[in-house]
Amino acid sequence: MNSKERILTSLNHKEPDRIPVCLGSTLETSIVKDAYQNLCSHIGLKIKEVKFLDIVQQLPYLNEDFLDYFNIDTRGIFPGKSYSWPSYPKEDNDSFYFFDEWGIKWVKPKERSLYFDIRFNPLKGKDFDYIKNYKLPDPLDEDRYKNIEKQIKAAKKKNKAIVAFRPIGVGLLTMAEFLRGMEDFLIDLAINEKIALMILDKLQEIYSMGWEKFLSKFGKDIDVVEEGDDLSDQTGPLMSLEMFRKFLKPKLKETIKIIKGKSNAKVLYHSDGNIKPFIPDLIDCGIDAINPVQYSAKDMDTKELKKEFGKDITFWGGGCDTQKILPNGTPRDVEEEVKKRINDLAPGGGFVFATVHNIQKDVPPENVVAMFEAISKFGKY
Questions:
Q1: Which residues have CB under 8 Å from 214's CB, separation 6+?
Q2: Of 318, 311, 272, 321, whose CA–CA distance to 288 is shortest?
Q3: I need a surface site. Which of 10, 97, 220, 320 has the fewest CB within 10 A?
């Protein structure tokens, strides 16, 4: 069974020959630059140059030899521009910074910092007319699509499952929060519906245009597409189900209708935290898989999730905790953790192994190797 077959078998809730594995195919299933370089050195793989895929999260493009070393079944397809474009920021005395194509300013202090954070939200404090006339990026810009065919050909040559990131922006709610400011936009949802809907409608329009163009050109070759939003924190939802159903669910259904109308791709939905209250609605929207399955969050026990939703949805993640186990545990701890999550999530298919979000800088390379050895040890059906 090749990688593409393995992924699709599991997504169709059947057991493949072994558990399929994802690393680096989305911006939430990867490894940060420093950890990547440490791991490459540990396994004796020489990488001449490391380029950023996502400078905000410090995620590199992963070398093909590296992906083959760990038997990764997926390959990510990424557009030419994103919220973290361009790759090379400017600098002043204290910080690195850049304005992205949305007008958002990102800053990374030179001392004691890991990532870029937002320091300017272009729609913060602005009125309805300003927002209505604010120019958003062009979803039809050819720069977004010019390298896609090359990426697809490379993945197809190795029979890898192809996972496509959205052609523009990040999740609808997340992008609205980036533009308006998280606190301000959540307040808008509660008391300024006119402004909230204006922002969401403007975003939905260009997101739909992007998916229409992307899938018209490449849809026949795409196996999985990623959508999503951070709907929750670790304790519970950031909004009520009623608010989700009013503002976001209809737009998510519209997006999935476009995706499934122009491709045979499965839809992977990313949201951190305790998203259990939303899962029935996500299934109703047509979501096929969820990520990252943050089982350290409230009510996200992997065994219970599999029992309740395993017939309807694939768990793309939940393989190993990146907050405590991978950075602080021993290789033996990592092995036991991987074994437990496989036992909980793998039976009957519907499981793609990925860590709970990206592997961070403080993770010892020995623990990453132990994780992959455990997958090999316990991951056969």
A1: 79, 144, 145, 148, 164, 167
A2: 311
A3: 220
pLDDT digits (tens, 9 = 90+) for 44-94: 999 888 999 999 999 999 999 999 999 999 999 998 876 566 667 899 999
**For the purposes of burial, counting CB atoms within 10 Å of the CB of 160, is it exposed (0-12), middle (13-18) or buried (19 or more)?**
buried
Other beta carbons within 10 angstroms of residue 375's beta carbon come to 23
Dihedral over alpha carbons 262, 159, 151, 289 (to 10 degrees): 50
Structure tokens at 313: 């949805």
Task: Delineate the domains of the chain, giving CATH numbers in brackets.
Answer: 3-89+126-378 (3.20.20.210)
- Decide: 45 and 63 in contact? Cβ < 8 Å: yes
State how far the Cα of 269 lies from the Cα of 285, in Å rounded to an integer: 11
Residue for token pair 């190795």: 158
pTM for the model stands at: 0.96
Q: Are 16 and 381 a contacting pair, CB within 8 Å?
A: yes
Name the residue among 318, 202, 308, 312 with its Cα closest to residue 271: 318
Half-sphere exposure of 202 (CA within 13 A, CB side): 22
Q: Tens digit of pLDDT for each residue in 243-298?
A: 999 999 999 999 999 999 999 999 999 999 999 999 999 999 999 999 999 999 99
CA nearest to 317, candidates 341, 288, 281: 341
Per-residue exposure over 237-258, b if at least 16 CB sit within 10 Å of its own CB, e if not: bbbeeebbeebbbebbeebbeb
- Tell me whether the omega of the peptide bond preceding residue 292 falls within 30 degrees of 0, making it cis: yes
